[in-house]
Amino acid sequence: MRARLRLGDGTGPVLVVLLILLVALTFVGPAYVEPAGYLALLKRAAPLVVLAVGQYFVVVSGGFDLSVGSLVTAEVVVAARLVDGDDANTWWVIALLLGCGVLVGLVNGLITTKLLVPSFIVTLGMLLVLDGAVFLWSGGAPRGALSPSFRVLGRGSADVPVIGQVPWSVIVLLVVLVAAVWFMHRGTGRMLLAVGDNDNVVRLAGGRVDRLRLLAFVLSALLASVAAILLAGFAGVSAQVGEGMEFRAITAVVLGGVLLGGGRGSVVAAAAGALSLEALFSLLNLLGVSGALESAVQGVIIIVAVAYAAHGAGLRRMLRRPVPDTA
Amino acid sequence: MNRKWSAAALAGALTLAGCSSDLPAAQAPGGTSESAKAKSEFFDQGEYERQLRFRTAKAVGLDSQDGAAKPWEQALEPQLVDTAKFAKPGGGYHLCFSNASVDNPWRQVGFKTMKEEVKLHPEITKFTVLDAEAKDDKQISDIQSLASQGCNALVVSPNTTATLTPAVEAACATGVPVIVFDRGVKTSCPVTFIHPIGGFAFGADGAEFLKDKVKPGGKVLALRILPGVDVLEQRWAAANEIFAGSQVKVVGVEFTNGDAAKTKSIVNEYIQREGKIDGVWMDAGATAVAAVEAFQDAGAAIPPFVGEDQQDFLRMWADEKMTAVAPTYPTYQWRTPIIAALRVLGGKQVPREWVLPQPKVTQDTLKDFIKQDMPPLHYAMCGCEGMPGYPAPWK
Prior knowledge:
The complex is a heterodimer.
Chain A: H1 11-28, H2 35-60, H3 68-83, H4 90-114, H5 119-138, H6 148-155, E1 157-160, E2 164-167, H7 168-185, H8 187-197, H9 199-204, H10 209-235, H11 245-255, H12 267-286, H13 293-312, H14 315-320
Antiparallel strand pairs in A: 1-2
Helix pairs in contact in A: 1-12, 2-7, 2-10, 2-11, 2-12, 3-4, 3-5, 3-10, 4-5, 4-10, 6-10, 8-10, 11-12, 11-13
Chain B: H1 2-20, H2 23-27, H3 32-37, H4 45-54, E1 60-61, E2 74-75, E3 80-81, E4 93-99, H5 105-119, E5 124-131, H6 136-147, E6 153-157, H7 161-173, E7 178-181, E8 192-196, H8 199-213, E9 219-224, H9 230-244, E10 249-255, H10 260-274, E11 279-282, H11 288-297, E12 305-306, H12 311-319, E13 324-327, H13 336-345, E14 350-351, E15 353-356, E16 360-361, H14 366-369
Parallel strand pairs in B: 4-5, 4-6, 6-7, 7-8, 8-15, 9-10, 9-11, 12-13
Antiparallel strand pairs in B: 1-2, 3-14, 13-16
Helix pairs in contact in B: 4-8, 6-7, 8-9, 10-11
């Protein structure tokens, strides 16, 4: 049983969905005949994919991280204020943002594991706290500006031999993905999956469940910070930048076949889920379907994918551990 | 497992297909007849014509001192009302202000300007402000609480029109002069209602510019923030009216939620889909820079653009030598309620509806409005450059 539920499970279907969407894009959008069109898509999708990878760590270990969207907003607003358009501030601010990400992850993780508050509630609270803090600090309107060098990661491209111009965000995305796959193949990653499946077994076997869960939250918040840097670079300062990102990331993860409640799913599938979601939105836009449908589509995906996952894995499993509702 | 997945995907696809099939009619991109059909419920022919006429009408100073009156002291076609019953000579005024919110850069710049205006008048000894944080219920209780604080005059910037009407009526009933500005209320009890010309004029300024600059058959992308907000709906209704009577083709009307990343993705997708976009109309300029960047990043020429008077857009306009126009919803209107309150307390006449001029920034006036040392989201049409504290409070 365990072997069948290992990494790679659920990767097949989402890759098929992604492939269908990408092929459909070539028929609808003239730009998608050339690699440049796909690179542009990857560049737009990079922040969401990074967020989805972070969300994957938390979901697969049996939790939720609803705080990532407001964390992204908070970091973008803070970055603009601190950088204040000066290139000299770029690097220390980036370091500070990553540090803040780790801190928020630690708080989420410690409250979940030590105070035994469900992660759904902890991160929902964190969402509200960060939203409120940003509002209080900025008064609702972001001040300051990002420096050109800060924006390079999200906006600029690197010259790669043979391939040519590759957006930095795509390179960041690949690095994050490779690191995540490597991590999930190592002992710690497998333990994390096992925690989501059955934490008592891991505890009895001598695994440090709390530490693993804490690590998942830290990784999620850290990757949310990376996404914030990419998004700020992509589009500049905005107080709406992270709105709804947490749900988009969760949709991406469930679309990748990762089981809510944890214990099953692969990180590649989660990333593919994020890319599929972005490709689907691009496709709908190219077909001239209103952008207002986006949230409806997301809702349908969450419900269908979770319902499928529940039935696919058997009712027995669902009865043994109730799957939290995400709506 | 694969079979079930594809069944799920199919079900999803069918749902989507079902949803999407009845959408294009409602969205009405392009064609003249189609756009005309989609004339929105927010379109009001009489008000539309009045606003368009106001744009060229001459604004006058209230004390027939046309030369000296600044734009925020002027009014268009004022119908003056007597305020003698509110007169309270001698100064020592306690002014109260119920503010809808300060949750966007426009309201922030405006509110700072208002606070500086208060400082200009020593006869105002106390200025009490309650911020409703964009909540109707909070603003209703704010107005009630101000009623018991001994205000000599009450300024209200309503959060929403219909819901705040009873609260404003109740405030009027206490005998305190009430001054409403920005968004209105559905009652005539306030002494004066101050606002710039309005949404139709704003939308028309941009649309007429594109009609003029985009060649016949050219593709225009319209970007809107949200549906359903009356001031924004009016802007689009006017633009829609003008595009319908022109040769340009509106290839898309999209909602951005005011989010720069989303705006950039949408514009990027339209450039890919249409091959070329010949003009961009926006109902507000907050994400104009992101939209311009999408053209830069795609390596496409920047087409004629409609933005707003925020510094980041004005700088981009100058630096990239763009063809652009910036209609404004001037933040200087935040000065006027204070001026109006003092006129009322001084027993001087004020217009029943105080319509302020609503200028636009054009290529010719661009350089006058660029202020390199001001924050990127600062609104240029603040009328605040001459104020004693400038520029520190606005930074």
